[in-house]
Amino acid sequence: MWWGLRCALTFLGDLLLSDGMGDPGNQWTVEKRFRVTEVFLAILWCSASAYLSYFFTDCLMSRWLLFYTPSATVVRLLTTNALIAYITNCVLYLSGASQDPRMLLPAWVSIATTLTMLYHLTHRKINIRKETKASLNIFSIASFLSLCTLLLQLHLTRDNDPTVPLFEMARHIWQWIHKALQGAFT
Question: 23, 69, 37: which is closest to 157 by C-alpha?
Answer without folding.
Answer: 37
